[in-house]
Amino acid sequence: ATFLAPEGKGPLSLDLASMGKGQAWVNGQSIGRYWPAYLAPSTGCTTNCDYRGAYDASKCLRNCGQPAQTLYHIPRTWVHSGKNLLVLHEELGGDPSKISLLTRTGQEVCAHVSEADPPPADSWQPNLEFMSQSSQVRLTCEQGWHISMINFASFGTPRGHCGTFNPGNCHANVLSVVQQACIGQEGCAIPVSTARLGDPCPGVLKSLAIEALCSY
């Protein structure tokens, strides 16, 4: 089959969820073996993920009953304007009419750092106590990408994880501070300190949570 590459310079991938098992080539370049028909066990997943305690190979299982991989990366340098050639060698059978080409236009990056966390290792100085240095939230996009949006920024007792952050009972909206330091940059650093961010709840151990979007 032939396909037209989407505009832009972002990474591309083939969605081969409708296929069984085989190998694929794009313009003569092999993207390797695909095997969406091989499914993970249908049981063992849990919504309460906790890695603490003794090691157990069944901890924090996800996507039970689903294929291990459905998206297969295509380097941009392999495609060109006009028609591109896709060749599939399918061993089990599938529906090639449902194959789609995807592109990534943005990437979320998150960080959640407490006042009690040590400062970044590259800022350590000889004979200087950690207590005299501030911890930092550092955000970094892939090379060539930049921070285009701040989706969440809270200093206090934020809860949740990347993509589900929520303000806690103690909350200072520091969105403008983070935007000023990070928007348009490939990476940025924000000191986790009341001197920079204010003190919404004196005497309470606070942390800074940020969720940002990187764009190409």
From TrEMBL:
It is an enzyme of class 3 (hydrolase). It comes from the Eukaryota. It catalyses: Hydrolysis of terminal non-reducing beta-D-galactose residues in beta-D-galactosides. Its EC number is 3.2.1.23. Pfam families: BetaGal_gal-bd, SUEL_Lectin. One of its GO terms (biological process) is carbohydrate metabolic process. Keywords: Glycosidase, Hydrolase, Signal. SUPFAM superfamilies: Galactose-binding domain-like. One of its GO terms (molecular function) is carbohydrate binding. Residues 131-215 form the SUEL-type lectin domain. Belongs to the glycosyl hydrolase 35 family. PANTHER family: BETA-GALACTOSIDASE RELATED. This is beta-galactosidase. It comes from Vitis vinifera (Grape). The lineage of its organism: Eukaryota, Viridiplantae, Streptophyta, Embryophyta, Tracheophyta.
